[in-house]
Write a structure and sequence with these properties.
Blueprint (H helix, E strand, L loop, with lengths): L3 H37 L1 E4 H4 L9 E7 L2 E6 L2 E4 L2 H5 L23 H12 L1
Antiparallel strand pairs: 1-2, 2-3, 3-4
Length: 122
């Protein structure tokens, strides 16, 4: 027969195990979610950004490579920063939209780049 003190120790150990499993499970779930989010990236659209949309395609995904901000458009990844281009990603020049209000210039992708950099910091 288990005495009261032993029973208290058993109950205390059960609580510790449950707490450990809860914390460990939460960490694992967070890691899975972060991997999934980064794998697919963040969807951004022309509809969302309106006249500030800097690309010739209406939909893009913000992704990362080792903390480097990228944009994936029509299945191809482009660098949003000089670091990305230095790592071998092509620049956005071929998918960069001209500014209809300023002929000869492009729509600055600053808002998109800032959002991608924030995503890559997670």
């Amino acid at each position: 027969m288990i005495n009261i003190q032993e029973q208290h120790v058993v109950e205390s150990n059960k609580k510790k195990l449950i707490n450990f499993c809860s914390v460990f499970g939460t960490i694992i779930l967070a890691a899975i979610v972060l991997c999934w989010v980064d794998r697919y990236g963040i969807k951004v659209t022309m509809q969302e950004y309106g006249t500030k949309w800097p690309f010739t395609y209406p939909v893009a995904r913000l992704t990362c490579d080792g903390g480097i901000a990228l944009v994936k458009i029509d299945g191809k990844k482009y660098g949003l920063t000089h670091k990305a281009e230095a790592k071998g990603y092509p620049s956005i020049d071929s998918v960069w939209r001209e500014d209809p209000e300023k002929p000869g210039s492009k729509i600055w992708p600053g808002d998109i780049t800032a959002r991608a950099r924030e995503h890559c910091r997670y």
